[in-house]
Amino acid sequence: MNAQINQKEQYKLNQNVFKKRSISEIISEIIKLIRGKFIGLRFNQCGKWLRAERGVRVLKKNGAIKIGDKVLLHRNVKLSAWGTEGFAEISIGNNTYIGDRTEIHAGQSVKIGSNCNISWDVCIMDRDYHKLNSETEVIRPVVIEDDVWIGCNSIILKGVTIGKGAVVAAGSVVTKDVPPGTLVGGNPAKIIKEGVYWAP
Asked: Which of 11-25, 148-162, 164-178 has the least mean pLDDT?
């Protein structure tokens, strides 16, 4: 009985969302879905309902990219799984949005959880792209857990784990781990507030 009620409520919710959208918005969403179908062919694994805007770039060499359900890639997003020192992988969870011109660079592993909002002009990388006082490039995995919000123009550097529900303020440079449920900001990013939560 409850399952039937929930299905009816969900149907009404979907109908209300549909009614609130203009014809041009509906057409735009359909175009994003079609574009997502074609871009999804370039991924090693792609979930349902991928939406993609124009200019999304996918680069792979000795690497893999895995995308969950209901992911949105905004304009000019760049995903690069470029394995020079070994195999490289990018994975993005369900219902995660990646903003305009954001770049994700994996030389080993960048994992992004579900229900994340990553704003525009963000750079996430697990590598330096050069060798400094070493014969090999320093590469350390990046992990962004579920429900994370990353503000625009932020940089997430190698070896960082951002805990569940954390918020990264706009323009931050994250060089160290971020505990779950905290707000960080600045260069280098420091804890501003603990026990935060946010709603998309």
From this structure: 11-25
Residues 85 and 63: beta-carbon distance below 8 Å? no
pTM: 0.86
**Average pLDDT score over the chain:** 91
**Measured at the alpha carbon of residue 66, what is the angle toward residues 179 and 61, in degrees to the nearest 5?**
105
Percent with pLDDT over 90 in the chain: 78
Beginning with the edge strand found earlier in the chain, give each strand of the sheet holding 57-61 in spatial order.
Answer: 57-61, 78-82, 103-106, 123-125, 155-156, 173-174
CA dihedral sign of residues 142, 147, 148, 152: positive
State how far the Cα of 170 lies from the Cα of 192, in Å rounded to an integer.
13
Q: What share of the chain is helix, strand, coil (3-state, %, to 5)?
A: 20, 35, 50
Q: Give the tens place of pLDDT for each residue, 31-45.
A: 999 999 999 999 999
Q: Are 46 and 40 in contact (CB under 8 A)?
A: yes
In the three-class reduction of DSSP (H, G, I as helix; E, B as strand; rest coil), residue 94 is classed as: coil
Residue type, 98: I
Largest CA distance in the chain: 66
The counts of H helices and E strands in the chain are 2, 20
